[in-house]
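Researcher: Structure for this, please.
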Amino acid sequence: SVLQKKGVLFLHLHCPLHLQYLTNSLTYESFVSSSADHQRISSLQSEYQRMEPVDMEMLDPLELIGQRERQLDNRPEITPYCYSHRHSSDEMDDGTHTFSQLLSTSSIRCGDICAMENTVAFNNGIAHSRGGDISEAIRCFEAAFTGAAQSYDVRCAVSDGERSAGPSPHAILHNIGHCHSKLGRHKEALSYYYKALDLLNKNTIYPYHFDESPSQLDISSTLNCIAIAQYHDPENADSTTMALLLEKALALRIEIPGEECSQETATMLYNLGRVKVLQRNFDCARRLFEDSIKIRRSLLGADHIDVFTIYFNLGKTAECQGRIPQAIEFYKHFLSFAISRKGREDKDVARTLILIGRLSYESNNNEDAHLYLSHGLVAAKLAFGANSIVVANTLNKIGNVFYCQNKFPSALEAYQAGLAMERQIHLPLDDNIAVTLLNVARVQQHQSEYSSALESYAEAYQIKNRLHDQESVAAILTNTGWIYDEQGDFAQAARVFGEAIQIRKQLEGGQNMALLSALLNALGLVQYKQGHIHPALDNLFEALEACKSDSESEETHIVCICYNIATTYKAIGDIDQALKYHKETLRLELKIHSQDRNNTVSADSANYTQIALLYREIGILHGEREEYDEANYHLQHASQMCIDNPTLIDRDCAFKTLKSLGDLQMQMDDDDLAMRSYANAVSMFNHGTIANANMTEVESSSAQNDILGWVSDYLDYSSCLLPPAAAAA
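Model: Predicted structure, token format:
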């Protein structure tokens, strides 16, 4: 008993001598045993080292225990040892350490060698488990289970009901399951937890007193462990089953007086909250986390790791709900604790800094994003190593921040540093390398480093194509096409746009019509520049139909395509069709941007200049058809917009608009108005304004009836570049 107590003491002090004392106590126990047992026990230590793991499937513990019980009917009944349900946590408590307390041998009846052997083996298992030797811990627990199953006696202590007959089989099974869970063998863990639960449900051989309700607590704890083992096993992670298990565990526990505010109840509330997050029931998860944190604060104090663990999960819940500012605040609470407890070189500190930086970036708070990501980068280098994947990913995220700030040289430097690490860490065809290459290529494209960008896109294309990521392949071809277009290599641009279109049509049956429409529009523009007008029109009309068929397409997309169709028709002299599609473009623009039914366009409108130019273009086309009233109406509108807000419109465009009005007025034989328009044009060109801005009032025309409503910015299809993306984890 003295050696057992010393072993327990050294274990609590994390001293390796605990195994020596716990094992020696078993040897000394042989000297006080009966002579009949002496020979068997004297060699137990060497036999124990050679013991093979028990085949649990071949052993029916209930039957073995029942046999032993029938042999000992002459012994007085007692209540077996009631295990404490308070448990320590290695780091963060998830409720799986229920039976991790050492058992004392002092309560074992003198001469009960079987109980002593089982207890020492059980304690050795706990010692090895805490020391990190999980395989040896399993061997110890299996030895304890063999002894308990073959010789467990529920009446082998004195009659006062206070003494133990050694560890119970369900406790041993529970600990074996926990050891397998620690090793990541969750299926094996579930098997042992279910065996323990089966023993507990057949509790006729465990006559506990109801006022202590240990059996009910044990069942509750085992249900919790089954749920946690499933939670960590993706193949068995059925959230509905996990939720039912945890709800049953909570219901059993809170029935017992005093348990509604226990540490174990707080742990199960926390675990159920995690499951509710998996079910995307975030409101319920938040309430469970809040209930858990109240109990843990009162029991453990505000600065305990289990309290701050819930802060982290509250942050994750808020993040999933889109409440990013609240999520950041919860993560900051956890971060302050992690720094104070572990220092700035800890992995949790690094990850949380990076997480806050990422959320700040996604919230367009680039200053905070850069601050936290920079600190996270330093912490990650210390915690994970200077050439780790975490460091590489963080560099990629920092590059994204610089990119959004238009600091392209700094972004390129960060991306390339991360790429160099990824090439050392990953295989050549890893997706992380491809994503970073795309970010590098996009920066190079923005800096007009077209040759370098094409090389980066080509390497990314090879990786994505080998990985059969056709979505990314189509995007890379699109970006490559724009580079060829910028370089004036229209034949190459048309080729890669054509390849991208074929891929888009195959992906999901061509369901993403907005992207398909953008590519068809791009191909039409390139063909227009090549002088291939009829193929260009075919692709532009297909783009228009694809855009209209997509219910989520914005009207700005249709505006852009209609304008391109009108421009193409004008190039081949089809004035009627050009006029038709220019008017449709203007109608949609006014639908988006006009403030009232009079089609008044605010100077704050993003498309003020485009609308003025549309009025001018329609006026010129009407003039070519000698429809002077319509031409005058539209040119007057365009000219007045130039005069009202001269700073919004280029001087050359304003000059051409006013000159076009003067030319029309000359055709209409109104020389005075023509001279005034010419004078205004010269004044606008020379000074950017007009001294007397009063023009002849625009007269009403039937054309007004064709432009009612309210529409958006032109879609610049060159923006179909890949957005900056952090490398995949």
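Researcher: Any notable elements?
Model: The CA atoms of residues 177 and 192 lie 5 Å apart. The mean pLDDT is 78.
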